Amino acid sequence: MKKILIPVGILLVLGIFIYSKAVGTYNQFVQLEEEINGQWAEVETQYQRRTDLIPNLVSTVKGYAEFEQETLTGVVEARSKATSVQIDPTNLTPEKLAEFQQAQDQLSGALSRLLVTVEKYPDLKANQNFLELQAQLEGTENRIAVARRNFNESIKSYNSTLKVFPNNLFAGWYGFVAKGYFEAAAGAENAPKVEF
Amino acid sequence: MAQDFPPAPNPPRLVNDFTGTLSASEVEQLEQKLLAYSDSTSTQVAIVLLGSVGPYDIADYTIQLGEKWGIGVKGKDNGILILAAMEDRKCFIAAGRGLEGAIPDALAKRIVSDMILPNFKMEAYYQGLDQATDMIFKLASGEYKADEVLSEGNSGGSILLILLLVFLFVILPLIKNRRDNNNHMGGRGGGVDFWTTLMLANMLGGGGRSSGGGSFGDFSSGGGSFGGFGGGSFGGGGAGGSW
């Protein structure tokens, strides 16, 4: 009788241990995923803020720089393209994220071309409305950068938790997969050094 | 990456000149001024002068440094970091999350372009920082005034009035001055106007309150020392420029 009890007891303890470990890991993943969703919402909010500023910017520029139709059209087109790429936060695969980033980067490019063109129009550069919009736009770009960095950090803690043993086993069971990062802007590697 | 950012100063200081641009007495004067403001309002305004931000965008660097040092009080996020990279000839004012309403990007931009850049161009670094911090005090004080008013439950109208006054007296004259400026030699027209009208707007705004307005701008003469940054967070607010 006693000989049976010992292995059963061991199995029972082992089972409880694995079960609680599995539940704990699951909850940890859920928490990290929630964190990511929160950061993603912030990223989307800031990109949306930029999108919302554009019609105003375009109509302000239009009044002064009528000859720059092509640049303006470029911005409007990039904007509508960027708004068409939406991501469901539960499906943040690297491919999806790259697509989103590409659309938004295109809009950034079109916007910066517009702001370069504007240099040719001193009247516009003295326009108070335009200056406000420009400051807001710059501010939004900065906020986007912060939101993206925070998002990347939460992805990093999620991914690194996911990949270590034994979490990787549990993650496989539950169907949690690694998520994508925002890529850093190109050309930032071989730049000068910081000096205090 | 981490070595790109200087560690938070120990003992903690609000004014950190890594370049030796300011004289010791100028640093001390600014420090006491910012310290007095921080003591009376809990809003922490910090100044950092360094050589170069290297590969970083000045905005990005300033925001990250503010976040790393935790300028401002946790929860209130009422920190401001004015950072100038002397070799890059660039400056940025980063506003903590809690101050983005009081100092929106457009106003931060104006502080940089109207107070810091013209002075820095003439190598009047202390004057530039002095004027910029004065203006930040005025704006940031408005935010806490608004807080008080709201908690007493009456009249959001006075905030609107203050904003209206700021717009009428500050922004309109600026537009005019900007037009005038083309004709002058080196002088920046309207610095005084801008300044006095803001004082005026501030006094009018302060008239409704019973007390507390007088302490801003006081220079505390006792050489107190700063207790340290409080973990404030930066969301990307602020603006910059280059001289």
Topology diagram in text:
The complex is a heterodimer of chains A (196) and B (243).
Chain A lengths: L1 H63 L4 H16 L9 H24 L4 H4 L2 H36 L3 H8 L22
Chain B lengths: L14 E3 L6 H18 L2 E7 L7 H12 L9 E7 L4 E6 L9 H17 L3 H28 L4 H25 L9 H16 L30 E6 L1
Parallel strand pairs in B: 1-2, 2-3
Antiparallel strand pairs in B: 3-4, 4-5
Helix pairs in contact in B: 1-4, 3-4, 4-6, 5-6
Question: Would you mind describing this structure in some detail?
Answer:
- The complex is a heterodimer of chains A (196) and B (243).
- Chain A has 6 helices and no strands.
- Chain A has 196 residues and is an all-alpha fold.
- In chain A, α1 packs antiparallel against α2, α1 runs antiparallel to α5 and α1 packs across α6.
- Chain A is elongated, with a radius of gyration of 25 Å.
- The mean pLDDT of chain A is 84.
- In chain B, α5 runs antiparallel to α6.
- Chain B is globular, with a radius of gyration of 17 Å.
- A 5-stranded mixed sheet of chain B has the order 1-2-3-4-5, with helices on both faces.
- The interface between A and B is medium-sized, with 24 and 33 residues.
Short précis:
The complex is a heterodimer of chains A (196) and B (243). With 196 residues, chain A is mainly α.
* End-to-end distance of chain B: 27 Å
What are the low-pLDDT stretches of chain A, counting only 5+ consecutive residues below 50?
Answer: none
Strand content of chain A: under 5%
Continuous helix count of chain A = 6
Strand count, sense and barrel status of the largest sheet of chain A are: none
Basic shape of chain A: elongated
Number of separate helices of chain B: 6
The coarse silhouette of chain B is globular
Beta-strand content of chain B: 5-15%
Radius of gyration of chain B: 17 Å
- Assembly status: heterodimer
